[in-house]
Amino acid sequence: MSLLERDRGLLWHPYAPVDAGALYAVRAASGVRLTLDDGATEREVVDGMASWWSAVHGYRHPVLDAAARAQLDRFSHVMFGGLTHEPAVELAERLVTLAPAGLEHVFLADSGSISVEVALKIVLQHHAARGRPERSRFLALRGGYHGDTFATMSVCDPVDGMHAAFSGMTADHVFAPRPPAARLLADGSWQVDEDDQAAWERHTRDVVAAHARELAGIVAEPVLQGAGGMHVYHPRCLTVLRELADEHDLLLVLDEIATGLGRTGRFLATEHAGVVPDLLCVGKALTGGYLTLAAVLCSARVAEVVGSGGHGMPRALLHGPTFMGNPLACAVAASSLGLLTADGGDGPAWRAQVAGLQGHLQAGLQPASDLTSVRDVRVLGGVGVVQLDGPVRVAEVTRAVVRRGAWVRPFRDLVYVMPPYVCGAADVAELTAAVVGGVEEVHG
């Protein structure tokens, strides 16, 4: 019996029926390539997904392998309650150094979803400690996605998101419209319909004003809404959200789990706007795809209020996962950040890598614009998107792309790529040709 046959009906895969199984088995992963087995044939393909955007350095990277082995030789885990260790401290020091000034405290979480959960808790404890427990709702953006746990589902798009089936079981929050689509031009300027932008600003300001007395914070993915549709919007929207937070005494939470650590062409996507949030979440690429880990960075101002124990609230932050601050994950994450920020000649390594990716993705995906089935082609940093005029025939497109030498995971009307930063020009050319050819074969 093949591995795929053994899997089907035994393992429940993400966003799939229990009997769906998998399309391929992975036999090996090295550099930017996966070896896939469909039960009859093995083939090596370029990984266009970077394992859901996390394996930015590729697979079996010698520096990250060495960091993991060295920590295994010391200890792989120890509880974080009442104890600390070198990998956690080093990782937190690196994160604070790389983050915008003012974000001085780090909470280490198990995953991206949990980091957003923790951020929401911090916001609520902050207001309760100030004697404002009635401030218990959040403003989020239509089209947003922040995770699969119950609190994070409640701030995802309530209608067009992936969690509409749970709408009656999640908290009821307030939503602003999805920001209008924008495009980053080659000269570094942003293009957006000014009338649409002005209308969005007016509407969002009105929504916040109408609910200000019950709002505790604002939650958003900066510049790029990922799982909500790979939707790019103008940095000015972040400036508006920061202004509204300040005007109405709200806390701004920016979810950089997908966008952070270089993916959009800035180390943090919030840098496109020069906005500093009160809380910032990072994950996915944090460990280079080796282990699950995320972090919440919090401003000193907010942490001081939470720690004050005001109005009968506990001074402690009420969250403590068993595997919080896992030493193995922290050691790999610190090394991953070291790789990203190492001298690349003209600046940190990530900058040249992502700039190269952006140029190669633009050139390689542009021919898709001529296909009759394609509505839009867009690129931002290391993100390339081919948007169709209708739903993707996912399995057919995936197989067509794999036959041409690349792995992708389409969804909705999108065939997109977010490959490892270390992809070279030839790798990206093979990846983009496979995407364009696969879309043309299946959708025309």
UniProtKB/TrEMBL annotation:
Keywords associated with the record: Aminotransferase, Biotin biosynthesis, Cytoplasm, Pyridoxal phosphate, S-adenosyl-L-methionine, Transferase
Record-listed substrate binding positions: W52, Y145, K284, G320, R409
Compartments it resides in: Cytoplasm
Positions annotated to bind pyridoxal 5'-phosphate: G112, S113, D255, P321, T322
A Pfam entry, by short name: Aminotran_3
Pathway the protein takes part in: Cofactor biosynthesis; biotin biosynthesis; 7,8-diaminononanoate from 8-amino-7-oxononanoate (SAM route): step 1/1
Modified residues (N6-(pyridoxal phosphate)lysine): K284
Coiled-coil ranges from the UniProt annotation: none
Participates in the substrate recognition with KAPA and in a stacking interaction with the adenine ring of SAM, annotated site positions: Y15
Named cofactor requirement(s): pyridoxal 5'-phosphate
A GO molecular function held by the record: pyridoxal phosphate binding
Catalysed reaction, written as an equation: (8S)-8-amino-7-oxononanoate + S-adenosyl-L-methionine = S-adenosyl-4-methylsulfanyl-2-oxobutanoate + (7R,8S)-7,8-diammoniononanoate
Any GO CC annotation of this UniProt entry: cytoplasm
Cross-referenced Gene3D superfamilies: Aspartate Aminotransferase, domain 1 (3.90.1150.10), Type I PLP-dependent aspartate aminotransferase-like (Major domain) (3.40.640.10)
Record EC number: 2.6.1.62
BP GO terms, sorted: biotin biosynthetic process
Source domain of life: Bacteria
Subunit structure: Homodimer.
HAMAP family documented for this protein: BioA
Function: Catalyzes the transfer of the alpha-amino group from S-adenosyl-L-methionine (SAM) to 7-keto-8-aminopelargonic acid (KAPA) to form 7,8-diaminopelargonic acid (DAPA). It is the only aminotransferase known to utilize SAM as an amino donor.
PANTHER family: ADENOSYLMETHIONINE-8-AMINO-7-OXONONANOATE AMINOTRANSFERASE (PTHR42684)
Protein family membership: Belongs to the class-III pyridoxal-phosphate-dependent aminotransferase family. BioA subfamily.
Protein name: Adenosylmethionine-8-amino-7-oxononanoate aminotransferase
Organism: Ornithinimicrobium tianjinense
